[in-house]
Amino acid sequence: MAQLKVTLIHSVAHRLPKQRKIVEAMGLHRVNSTVIQPDNDATRGALFQIAHLIKVEEVK
């Protein structure tokens, strides 16, 4: 199964509470922090909600 490298590139300050919770649940804390997430429908749905705050790369 492929994995996704997710990097927070914009601050979550002054964002909707739902978006802040998604970023926290992903394990991202500060700008430029990076996590590896599995590539599945649940992850893709969460990433779609915060697409304007993150950068996503596929890891093989």
Report on this structure.
- The protein is α+β, with helices and mostly antiparallel strands and 60 residues long.
- The protein has a single domain (3-59), classed as Ribosomal Protein L30, Chain: A, CATH 3.30.1390.20.
- Helices cover 32% and strands 28% of the residues.
- It has helices at 17-26, 41-49; strands at 3-8, 34-38, 54-59.
- The chain has a three-stranded antiparallel β-sheet with strand order 2-1-3, with no helix packed on it.
- The longest helix has 10 residues, at 17-26.
- The termini are close together.
Number of domains: 1
Supply the number of helical segments: 2
Proportion of residues in helical segments:
25-40%
The largest sheet is: 3 strands, antiparallel
Which architecture name does CATH use? Answer: 2-Layer Sandwich
Using only C-alpha atoms, the radius of gyration works out to 11 Å
What is the global morphology? globular
Low-confidence blocks of residues: none
Distance between termini? 9 Å
* CATH class type: Alpha Beta
Indicate the structural class: alpha+beta
| Overall number of strands | 3
CATH superfamily: Ribosomal protein L30/L7
**Widest sheet, order of strands:** 2-1-3
**The CATH topology, please?**
Ribosomal Protein L30, Chain: A
DSSP strand content: 25-35%
Mean pLDDT: 97
Order of helices and strands: EHEHE
Brief rundown of the structure:
The chain has about 60 residues and is an alpha+beta fold.
